[in-house]
Structures are given as structure tokens and as C-alpha cells.
Amino acid sequence: MTRKADRKPLHLNAFLMSVGHHEAAWRLPESPADGGTDIAHYQNLARIAERGRLDSLFLADSPVLQGDPGRRPVSKLEPTVLLTALAGVTTHIGLIATASTSYNEPYNLARRFASVDHVSGGRAGWNIVTTAGADAARNFGLDDTPLHRDRYLRAAEFVDVATKLWDSWADDAVLADKESGVHALADRVRKVHHQGEYFRVDGPLNVRRSPQGYPLLVQAGSSEDGKDFAARYAEAVFTAQQTLEEAIAFYQDVKQRTAAFGRDPEGIKILPGIVPVIGDTEADALALDAELDRLIRPEYAKRQLANRLRIPPDQLDLDRELPEDIPTEDEIEGAKSRYTLVVELARREKLTVRQLIGRLGGGRGHRTFAGTAEQVADTIEHWYDAGAADGFNIMPAVLPSGLELFVDRVVPILQERGLFRTEYTGRTLREHYGLPRPSNRLFDTVDASAGHLGIALADAR
Amino acid sequence: MTRKADRKPLHLNAFLMSVGHHEAAWRLPESPADGGTDIAHYQNLARIAERGRLDSLFLADSPVLQGDPGRRPVSKLEPTVLLTALAGVTTHIGLIATASTSYNEPYNLARRFASVDHVSGGRAGWNIVTTAGADAARNFGLDDTPLHRDRYLRAAEFVDVATKLWDSWADDAVLADKESGVHALADRVRKVHHQGEYFRVDGPLNVRRSPQGYPLLVQAGSSEDGKDFAARYAEAVFTAQQTLEEAIAFYQDVKQRTAAFGRDPEGIKILPGIVPVIGDTEADALALDAELDRLIRPEYAKRQLANRLRIPPDQLDLDRELPEDIPTEDEIEGAKSRYTLVVELARREKLTVRQLIGRLGGGRGHRTFAGTAEQVADTIEHWYDAGAADGFNIMPAVLPSGLELFVDRVVPILQERGLFRTEYTGRTLREHYGLPRPSNRLFDTVDASAGHLGIALADAR
Asked: pTM for this structure?
């Protein structure tokens, strides 16, 4: 499955996170003191990404204070609010935000994403997450995370309800005939009357159908449930892959699962994460990478790693490998695939705890790559041609400088090689990714054999 | 309680609603076809209001499709998203949005308002509503509206949780010491460990304390529970008052209740609604008013009125007064005070159903006033001097033209009379209203006898 013969441009997403994906990025002299809450900082990032003609930008999220406030900037702006603020200073780039299906109500979330899609002229995307972690659960009246399987069942029903609500207005519902006084056509706005296991929602939505119909649906979990969820509902997948072989296997697996749900495998775009650390020379890049790792405070990082592994911190020795006796993926609830990835990374590369902390500090399980712009472009091209990706989720270690370097040095190389657009050709997020606008399953008659309409068909069960 | 001797400038809020508060405004040739979802229309309104140096703008909301889509524009943007988009095109005006305590989780809503306050540089306000109506309930898994009293108990606890979350970061929590690697001071960020009747929330919030500490707290219900809620928590009150006598009585009642909760009555600003219909001459204004009423489709309006009165539509005759046999306020759940106001208005002025429909079509129970700019300024001054108001909630019948007329013709008269600011002197919403930034009740030691710290004291139970 190589791509040399049939080379289409690839897709690039900028994953924006405070002052960078490396947890010590804030300690560099160049970094703003508290970038997570700094709207001017984020607006600058959005403008840089759009200057590079990137498909989209992306914001992660969980409804909980994540990480140790003593150790790094953890205060941040709520993503649908932040997306809206970024929409105001950009004109083309797609705007994707994470939101939880476990801790939101479908009516509320459907309204917000429909509103962002209207305000941005069709640039909204929703990264659907089920939210692992007892800390988040305890902000919503629960004692612990709901079970993995329950979270995914609720997520599936949530997406079902949300898409029905987005489809509760036909695209042609609004007539606005001033003469007769008829505003919308009565039979083109419908209640949805959803009655399910987790939700009862009457509808209709109080927002008319938006430019894209509804936001691009994105998914980022890589567990078995996560991959099936992606194959069924998602139009784009962000994934953490450490090796080319694993990335190819994941890519093929998700595309096959997508086809098995009766969907066109081209209708789902797979974007592995890459944490580029770019220097004028390879030595410069490696020096920056080392400097960032040096700035991690190991005593905090060790505690965080022990927490992730569900073992007491004193079982970890900074200068030895992970102990043998740690839980298996089956024994933990939540973030299962990321857990396994971390343990396998440590075992495969025989990393000491200190080395593992450095790798996780940079990309939290995503692949870090330190080198020149040419080398970063080479590795992107190599993975793309090998059939490991439809594009990449760019996670600069330091922001804004890492994004500027990527946009100003790596993107031109990809453009020269015919691998990336030089101008936007579409206006909506789905147009950037070459995906069709979804049909309306409450009002449009669709041919169920067509197989390229995303949710409308995937959900016709 | 007249104000002639001690005349301070009054406060003005622009209540933005689609293409105007009159339900037939959309049928005028000048109106955009679907203003409720049109971000450019709203951004234009926000700029006009700021040009007039108004204190704030306000967006109503309910998580349900309100009104008949066949009859008027009902699609609209979610308010926290819309506020954020309006923050981007303005620099000073306050930004107030309604959000429901019955159909949100405190953690989620606290994050969004804190984020809007950050993004806008301290201009956010939250109009706290409990949301009446079975239609809304049926979007959230319920069969009917929760009982009035339950809704208010939940609302009180909701505000308690939200303010704790907003206070979970001390103002000086973030140190951002790059040298030592300490970002926030560990003892200046705290869990809130709330355990109540309706909510269990651990915290802390994942957004640091915002420029205003937290959004201005606004309230708009006028039932007994509503007035007590306002007296206890609110810093501004929007209210519908038809006569000067009733407005004075309401004003004094709320100020006294506020004092009874140990708060400074100056710490709560009362703004009755006024629906100005402005013309070059009084005859012009009255003609526009009549034209708008003529554009209401009476068969739809009769059905809506019957629904509000909980009687079958065939019991209403367009050319007769309301029937004697309709429910009392005690017999209904939700929107109690507005119900009584409508019935009393009809009885007092001996309105036919058709006339009542015209009055409600214009202001939904708020006071409509058709006249010249001078006459509108006179009535504002008269009510203000009589001690009926600290300011006014301006609800133009037609938008943007009604707001433009108010800003360009009425505001200069009020400025000439020394009744309204000619320039902004503050930057935050609370500064515009002359209200103090709230102290932090988790971190600040406050003198409970000071009596001007809003929630911090009101809630010290």
C-alpha cells in the first residue's frame, strides 16, 4: 500500500497546547508566562497555522484540572469559547475542539458546535472523547470514571442524538417570506423524539442546520472500542504511533474496520501525531531537545508516571527500567491504548525511567523527532508514502516558535515536493480534508449503497 | 426616594434579540432574513451599542426551540459562543448571557463564563435562570419542568458551586518562575470539595481566576423566589414593569430584601425593560408601532397566548377581553411573575385579546413606549428620578434600526442632561456598573461587616 504512484496532497493539523507540547516549554526564556489562558498567544498561533495553509487546528480538553499546577501551566480556556475567538482572527483554517460525551448533554453540546460552525462559516470540528479519569468524574457527582464500555455506549448514543439534532432543520427550512409572514416551512423543522438507553431528547435544535451540516467528527482513542467507534462515526482520527510498522498496521486496521461498517475508507482521514523539534542543524535540534528534557523536574514527573502506571512512586527508580510487575491494559479503566503504548515504548527501547520521562514530557506518547526541516519533511514523506497516514497531527514542542519553524521551513519543502497545498481551495473544514458535506438523515432520501455519507449511513441500523 | 438631589449617571443595557423584540420585526423590508443566526448582524449590533457607550449588551436564552418557527425567526446562536464572537469586535462594552442552572453542570458552565471573562478582558456577565417549560425539560430526559421551588434550590446551590470554582485559584496563584520551575504556588490552588443536595464537585477549576474574579451575576425573575434569589446573589436585575408605581414598589422591595441579606443595596442595580419605538414625530412612532402590530399573524398569536394561559385557544375571542375563568399564579409552574403581569395588564387596561396580542408581540410583557427621542429620554429621566430604576434594559422593537435611533438620538439627550456617560471610564463590566470586583472567599480574609462584597458575604451562611 504505497502511495508513490497516486500521490495526493497530505493533510496537516496543528495541535495547539499552551506554550508547547513539551511540558517544560514554559521555562524557556521565549515563552509567555501563562500561555494557556492568553488569548493573544492563541490568536497568534492560529494566524501562523493559517499562514502555512494548514487544514485545521486542534484543541485537546478534559473537564478537570489536568496535571500539576506547580509544575507547568495548566489553566486553559474552554475549547468552544477558544475556537470562537480563533474563528474571529482567521478566515479559512478548520477549528477542531475536544468535548466529552460523558460529561455533557447532547442538546447543549450540539448547540455549541452548530453555533461555532455558523460563526466560523463552516470550519468547526468535534473531537469526540469519552473522558477517562476519576478526577474528572469527581467534578460531576461521580466517585469514579464510568466503565470503559459504558462510556463508549453512551458516546455512540450521544453522537446519534447530536446528529439527529443537527439534522432537525432541513437545509431549505428557512423561507423568510416577508409578504406571507411564513418564516420557516413547518414540515422542514422536526422534533427528533429520541428515546434511548442514556438519553431522551425531543428536539428540534434551536439552531438551524449549519454551513457544514454539522461539525467534522474526529476521534482520537486507539483501544479496540476506540477503533470501532472511529470506524463507525469518525471522519478524521488523531493517533499516537511510535514506529512506522505500528502506524501502517493501525492505518490498515482502521480503514478495514471502516469498510466493514459499509463506509468508504477514503471517508476517514488518519493523522498520526509528530512532535517535531526543529533546528538549523541536526545538532541544534538535538541540543534543544536535550535542553527541554533537562528542564523537566524529575521528582514531579516520576510521581505522574507512577500515577499513570497505577503503582506507588517509590517503585520507580529514575536510573532503572520500569519494574516487571505493573498492571496490564485489561486491569485499568480509561486511556487504555495510551497506557499500553507507554509501557511498550519503555520495554522496546529499554528506557530508564528518566529517559521515559523525557520522551513522555515531549509528546506524551506521541513520536518526537528532532532534526532539520529537511529531515522532518523526509520523515513525513516517508511515512506518507509507506501508507501509514493521510496526514499528520503536528505537535510542536515549543509554541509559537516550533509552529513558526514548521510553517516557514517544513511546509515549503512539502509544497515543493507536491505533497501539500500552496493555497486553500475550499472554505469549509470538510472541503480542506476532501470530505463530503453530510446528507440530512431526517430529510434527505439517500441511497444506502453509496457508502460515502458518514454517519447518515453508518448509523442506518 | 427621589434622586434629583443626588443624581448619578444611570446605566443602560442593550437587550439584543435577532432582528428586534417585536415578533413581526423580521417582516419589515429593512430586516435581514434570518438575523438570529447571522453573526455579522449581531456584530453590527454590538458595535452600535458600544458606540453609544452602553454599559452592556444582553442575550436571553433557553435550551429549547422557543416559539413557532413558521411565524418568526427562532434559530439562534448559543449565547456563550455568541458573546465570544462579540468580544472580538468590541473593546469596552459588557457582555451578558443567560444560562440555565437546571440544564447545565456547574463545572462546565463555570469554565465557559471564566473563559469568556478572560477572552474579553473582564467583560462577562451571567444572567442566572432556572428555565421554565416542559419543552425544555424534554430536551434533557425529563417529562416536565422541575417544580419552581426545586429549581430555585438547585439554582442557589449551583451559584454556590460556581463561585467556589471561580475562587479555586487565588488571584496571585500563578508565579511562573522559570528559574526554579515552579509555575503556580501549590497552596494557592485548591479543591473545593463541594457536597450538596444537587451537586458533588471536587474542583479546582481548570481556568485560573479571571479579570473580574467571576462574571457579573444577573437575575431576571420577579416571583417571590426570584426576588429573594436576586437579593441574595444578583448584582444586576432585569425586570418587566408596566407602570411607574409598580416599578417603584419592585425597586424598593428588592433593595430592602438585599439589605435584609446583609448586602449593600447599592450593590444591586435594577433595570426595568423598555421597548422604545422611536420616530421623528410622535405620529411617526405610533405609525411604526401600529404597522408592526398589523404584521402579527393573529391566529398564531392567539394559540401562543392560550398556551401561556393554560387554556384551549377556542376560549379566546380576538375582539373580547380575557375570559374570567383562567388559572391563578399559584396553579401554574414556571414564569409565574410574567404570567401574572400579562393577566393584570389585560385586566387593568381592559384590553381585547387582539390588543393584548399587540402589546405582548412588542415586548412580551415589557413596557412599550412609542414616541420621539425626546419623549423616550423624558420617560427614562422621569422613572429614574422617581426612584424606579438604576438604569434601563433597552429592548428595541426593530434591530438594528431601533438601536441606532436610541444610540444616536436618545443617548445624546441623556448625556446632555448629565444622566449618562460620554466616555467609558472603566474597562470591565463591573466597573461600568460601579460595582466592586468580588473578593475570593476561599483565599481572601474579608470583614463580614463590610457588606459590599456580593456573594462572598451573602453566602457566608
From this structure: 0.91
